[in-house]
């Protein structure tokens, strides 16, 4: 046993399974003589429902973790360099992405047997806002071991719709280019490219997930249709079996009646033969 493996297994479980599994892991560690490990396992806290859903998103969609982290890096850099109009555009893209991921998390929770309401979904969205805004929050979320939703209070500064674009710094003289401005431009370009690449990758992954959901839905409809056919055929089979049993019973009854009638015929034949013999003897005696 090792701590990381146990922790990963525990936080991959459904919330109602966590406590019993933790107790079992602690007992196994004590049996193995590792009291320190048992104590560390005992310190692991059961996740809230919102934290469990956030962990479920990480574990069920690992391909979306790295792109989201890269997008967060790009957004944090962009918030240092971009003007108001560009910040508003990035903010709109950010909110659309978080909404899509939170809906995906809600669907995953439903499929795992824990439908969630709007309140829990908002906590998941707040966690994703914190992931994009704070590197520490991003690392905690990517580990898949959250015990409570992350606080979105630490986020990007709001950009009002009426904010006036920042005036660019005066361009340096062509003969003496400003090194700081050039570095800033390069950082801005790099941040923008990383944000756009991450968004494209996430969009592609969402499309793949949507296609997989549609395929799963179609497969379920086929399974349901086949199940109905099975139920219909099962009912028909039961009816035929019942009719077959009734026919066999009728056959046995008819055979029994035929045997009884045969015995009666043979008995009547013996009686008739006996009567004929007596008649013949009497006739012979009179002659």
Automatic annotation (TrEMBL):
Residues 159-210, 243-287 are annotated as: Disordered. Residues 182-210, 243-270, 277-287 have a biased composition (Basic and acidic residues). It comes from the Bacteria. This is Transposase. The lineage of its organism: Bacteria, Bacillati, Actinomycetota, Actinomycetes, Kitasatosporales.
